[in-house]
Specification:
alpha+beta; three-stranded mixed beta sheet; about 45% helix
C-alpha cells in the first residue's frame, strides 16, 4: 500500500472497491491506475480534485466514458469528499482475475438439515434467515466426517 500511494497517488482500497464502485460489467474491462493530483499553485487554496486515470480495454472505453459522471459520483461517495474531478481513460489490455471454482458441496443428511433449521428457529427476518441457512448448509456440507 505505501508503494502504491507513493507511485500512483492512491490506496489499494480504491483498487479493491473498484467492482463495487463501477459495477461488475465495467470492472471486468477496466481498472484504476493512478490518481493524478494537480500541482498546488495557490497556497491559500491547497486542495483541488484529482484526475483518475483508468485503464480500459478497447471498445469498452466508449461505454465507460458515457458513464464517467456516474462513476465520478460513486468514487467521491466512496472517499466521502470530492476527490476526483474527471476520468482520463487510457486504452490498454486489462488483466482479469479468474474466479476460483467453488467446491462441490456434499448433500446434507436430514439430521444436519434439521440442526440448521433448529439453530435458525428464532430468526424472524426472512432475508437474514435465508442467508444464514445458505451459510449453515455450506458450513455443514464442507466439514469432514467429524461433527461439532
Amino acid at each position: 500500500n505505501p508503494v502504491i500511494e507513493r507511485r500512483a497517488g492512491m490506496t489499494t482500497d480504491l483498487m479493491l472497491a473498484w467492482e463495487d464502485i463501477v459495477g461488475d460489467q465495467h470492472a471486468r474491462h477496466s481498472r484504476p491506475e493512478k490518481l493524478d493530483w494537480p500541482r498546488k499553485a495557490d497556497a491559500e487554496d491547497p486542495f483541488e480534485p484529482a484526475t483518475l486515470i483508468v485503464a480500459c480495454e478497447g471498445a469498452h472505453a466508449l461505454f465507460l466514458g458515457h458513464e464517467s459522471s456516474r462513476i465520478i459520483s460513486h468514487i467521491n461517495q466512496y472517499f466521502g469528499f470530492a476527490a476526483v474531478k474527471r476520468l482520463k481513460i487510457v486504452q490498454k489490455p486489462v488483466e482479469t482475475t479468474v474466479a476460483k471454482a467453488r467446491p462441490e458441496l456434499r448433500p446434507l443428511s436430514d439430521e444436519k438439515r434439521q440442526r440448521v433449521e433448529a439453530l435458525l428457529s428464532s430468526v424472524d427476518d426472512h432475508d437474514l434467515k435465508t442467508a444464514l441457512e445458505k451459510m449453515g448448509i455450506g458450513v455443514f456440507s464442507r466439514r469432514s466426517g467429524r461433527d461439532s
